[in-house]
Specification:
The protein is built from 24 helices and 34 strands. Among the domains are: about 100 residues, Rossmann fold; about 80 residues, ATP-grasp fold, B domain (D-amino Acid Aminotransferase, Chain A, domain 1), CATH 3.30.470; about 120 residues, 2-Layer Sandwich (D-amino Acid Aminotransferase, Chain A, domain 1). The protein has an 8-stranded antiparallel β-sheet. Strands 29, 30, 31, 32, 33 and 34 form a 6-stranded antiparallel β-sheet that branches. The chain has about 800 residues and is α+β, with helices and mostly antiparallel strands. Helix 3 packs antiparallel against helix 4, helix 4 crosses helix 5 and helix 14 crosses helix 24.
Length: about 800
């Protein structure tokens, strides 16, 4: 593309950080200009359609990022970086280091660090006789107690490296200053505000009265080529939450000129020579005062404001300056093309988006509509100070004057309705007594973000189910892993594929590394997890902890809760529950050491197995014993090899039935067609049991095992009895969504419950899936039904989390 006679098609710009999807318009504009984009970013993301070259690195680690850039250029000598820019406050300093290192055009690091640190910027202003409020670095409470008497309240406390008004708070006295400092010190972190990666210093300064403005400046070779001043509406104090702005400013010509002169002098003294600058200032009764200098284009509506009012493209200016392309001075007309005003959609309190109705078609008919953006959807958390610093979206409109634009804005807002649900009184927040407005802010925000996942699930409809982001908790395998691990991994991959084919966004979560997956889940926007996890930290004994992790993070999931999984995995506790509820099971006892004795009334043959393993681990043909000596030998083997208590139960000769069940309460429980295992064709000297070899090795003797699904010639009365016992077991164990009960039937048609698997394998070839196919549910239908059941369960059942209304 040629732009003003200059060919930009062979130019490559290094974009430092893609930013959030809110910045998509920037990349779209860069591509329309014809430039190629090399993006230095932590990962590939939404920007992939626009990025020509990805350079992946952790931008918070400047050395790593610069090394990654060097390596990229070394491996791709045909690529020449012509300029570097960022539109993301977090990466202003990294961009300046890159400019220094690769001799590019922009603001040097020595200059940028004085600007990026707001306290150092205040010090610079003071040292160079620029207007600045009194300020002091606060390192401890003692600094507040010893505050010089010359400091006058109200004051503003803020982080030195903050952005977007996060943790910027107005205080009226020392007590408020102390409480607020404690709040910021306790909650400030790079997790809550990524711009703080450069440091966590806190300082306070005297509050400045006056009109707050933004001055957007295009500067090249130390000369201002263009400027635009916009008015900020009154912020919501004490947190300085921006509510909206208008362009052009309504301030007097003299005040405007004073502001521009002050900004120009400030930039000259700082040594800022090139770039698009977002300069924040106040027009105070005593004259203009610099507030902040942002070494990048202003965010959100700034680009469209300037483009709409003055036809000046700040993105184009920024990239051309970075390339060293000379910009002539932009003569601004006396009158703007449009008068534009806009507001942010800001709720009065933190909560969960519960309503969003926008008459989009009607609004689009309005000639005054400039832009309308929403960044939140129903079910999302919205955190306002002191819990967080978010807004729902923003709208801008135009008019033939600022008053006319403001009237148009009032009209436009009639077409937008939204509600944010507050917490109900029974929630933990409602019951918490706060010492001050900050004391529970961190708790509030954490609970809200996680509770929103529950709320989103509660509000999803069947028709919109495929819009969900589904996670799959699973266990991948490595080359040296066995058949069990391979099967676990394949199951997760099968689920991922079938759901993606049906339009879901799907992410796999590796529960082999518990601490890592917790961090990944916390950062994820996943809506619901299919819990196909069979172990945590490579331990099947910890399988139930997968549900515990999801409960703690308040992420909805399919299947049973941690208690049900844990009780079912512990065969001894499971047996006790069966006995308590008079559900038939083989007579049994257990030992926890070699000194323990079992009940004398147990009749041989006896089945001996570990009490807390799955998948027939520890079960072989020798697991059935017929004498005291064999019993003691087998007990000793399990105690030694598996370090597990030992379950001893009477062996039941007969067929074994798998009863697959789906549903969560008595009204929607459904028993799928049974599966019967017939052992009678096995060779002599082999007990009729599911051993490890029978399930996983399929050695010759076990190839004679016959599985019928559905069973042939099954007596209806026996089928009903098996079904009722399985349902009782499933129900008293409080299973959710799906499960499988294993039952033995002796020669007299007496059923005995052996085990319950509340989260059986979801593999496409396993018993549950096969049973579902017999009633017309293919594999994908079964998975979608399980998702629907989980959604219904979260809608119908109260939880221990907060319950937004």
């Amino acid at each position: 593309m040629k732009n003003n006679g200059i060919d930009l098609n062979d130019k490559v710009v290094l974009l430092v950080n893609s930013g959030s999807i809110k910045k998509r318009f920037i990349l779209q504009r860069l591509k329309k200009l014809g430039v190629k984009i090399a993006c230095l970013n932590r990962e590939k993301n939404w920007a992939t359609p626009y990025v020509d070259y990805w350079i992946l690195a952790d931008n918070t680690n400047h050395n790593e990022a610069i090394s990654a850039l060097k390596e990229f250029l070394s491996q791709n000598p045909e690529v020449k970086i012509n300029g570097a820019i960022t539109f993301w406050e977090d990466d202003v300093l990294l961009t300046s280091k890159i400019i220094d290192k690769f001799n590019l055009i922009g603001t040097p690091f020595s200059v940028a660090k004085k600007i990026r640190n707001k306290f150092l910027f205040r010090e610079f202003c003071r040292q160079h006789d620029l207007p600045a409020p009194k300020h002091i670095l606060i390192k401890s409470i003692s600094d507040i107690q010893n505050l010089p008497e010359s400091f006058i309240f109200p004051m503003v406390i803020k982080p030195a490296y903050g952005a977007s008004s996060a943790y910027v708070i107005k205080v009226e006295n020392k007590e408020e200053l102390t409480d607020t400092y404690n709040y910021i010190k306790k909650n400030i972190s790079t997790e809550t505000e990524s711009a703080l990666n450069e440091g966590l210093d806190i300082f306070a300064e005297e509050y400045i009265e006056g009109d707050e403005v933004d001055i957007d400046i295009v500067i090249q070779n130390g000369k201002i080529k263009f400027y635009s001043i916009s008015d900020n509406y009154q912020t919501r104090e004490p947190f300085f939450v921006e509510t909206g702005q208008s362009i052009p400013t309504t301030l007097s010509q003299k005040t405007q000129q004073d502001l521009v002169d002050m900004a120009e002098e400030t930039l000259e003294l700082l040594g800022v020579q090139n770039g698009v600058i977002h300069f924040e200032a106040k027009a105070s009764p005593d004259g203009p005062v610099p507030i902040e200098v942002n070494l990048r284009m202003g965010g959100d509506e700034v680009y469209s404001f300037v483009k709409g009012a003055w036809s000046v493209d700040l993105i184009e200016c920024a990239v051309k300056i970075s390339f060293g392309i000379y910009l002539p001075k932009i003569n601004r007309p006396e009158m703007p093309r449009k008068y534009i005003t806009g507001v942010y959609f800001l709720p009065d309190y933190s909560g969960v988006m519960s309503k969003l109705e926008v008459s989009t078609e009607e609004l689009q008919k309005k000639k005054y509509l400039e832009e309308l953006h929403f960044f939140k959807k129903i079910g999302d958390p919205v955190l306002v100070p002191p819990d967080g610093y978010e807004y729902i979206g923003w709208i801008t409109v135009s008019g033939y004057s600022i008053p006319d634009a403001q009237e148009n804005l009032k009209d436009a807002l009639k077409y937008v309705k939204y509600e944010v649900a507050k917490f109900k009184p029974e929630s933990s927040i409602g019951k918490t007594s706060r010492k001050n407005s900050f004391s529970q802010a961190a708790l509030n925000s954490n609970i809200l973000v996680q509770a929103a996942k529950i709320e989103r699930i509660k509000r999803i409809t069947k028709e919109n189910q495929r819009n969900l982001h589904i996670g799959v908790a699973y266990n991948p395998y490595e080359e040296n892993d066995g058949k069990i691990e391979q099967k676990f991994a394949k199951t997760g991959e099968e689920i991922e594929k079938i759901l993606k084919d049906r339009g879901y966004k799907v992410t796999l979560f590796d529960f082999n590394n518990g601490s890592k997956v917790i961090n990944e889940l916390k950062k994820s926007d996943v809506d619901l997890i299919i819990n196909a996890c069979e172990s945590v930290n490579d331990s099947p004994v910890l399988k139930s902890h997968s549900a515990s992790i999801l409960d703690i993070l308040q992420i909805p999931y399919t299947g049973s809760n941690a208690l049900t999984i844990s009780l079912s995995t512990d065969k001894i506790k499971f047996k006790k529950l069966l006995d308590y509820h008079n559900i038939p099971t083989p007579s049994w006892d257990y030992v926890i050491s070699s000194d323990d004795k079992i009940y004398e009334n147990l009749r041989y043959p006896l089945m001996v197995k570990p009490s807390n393993t799955n998948y027939s681990m520890g079960i072989s043909n020798e697991s059935v014993v017929t004498s005291e000596q064999q019993l003691q030998d087998q007990i000793g083997k399990i105690l030694t090899e598996f370090k597990s208590p030992v379950l001893v139960e009477e062996y039941i000769e007969g067929d074994e039935y798998d009863v697959s069940i789906i549903g969560s309460d008595k009204d929607n429980l459904q028993v799928l067609p049974l599966a019967r295992t017939i052992f009678k064709n096995m060779p002599e000297n082999y007990w009729h049991i599911h051993t490890w070899d029978a399930k996983w090795a399929m050695t010759l003797p076990y190839k004679d095992i016959v599985i019928q699904q559905p069973p042939k010639n099954l007596n209806k009365k026996l089928e009903t009895l098996i079904t009722e016992i399985a349902l009782d077991t499933y129900f008293i164990m409080d299973c959710n969504d799906y499960g499988r009960v294993q039952i033995r039937v002796d020669e007299n048609s007496n059923p005995y419950v052996l085990e319950l698997n509340p989260n059986p394998s979801l593999s496409e070839i396993d018993s549950l899936s096969n049973a579902a196919k017999l009633i017309g549910l293919d594999y994908g239908d079964l998975l979608e039904d399980l998702i629907s059941m989980a959604i219904k369960r979260y809608k119908d059942q109260p939880t221990s989390f907060n319950l937004p209304s």
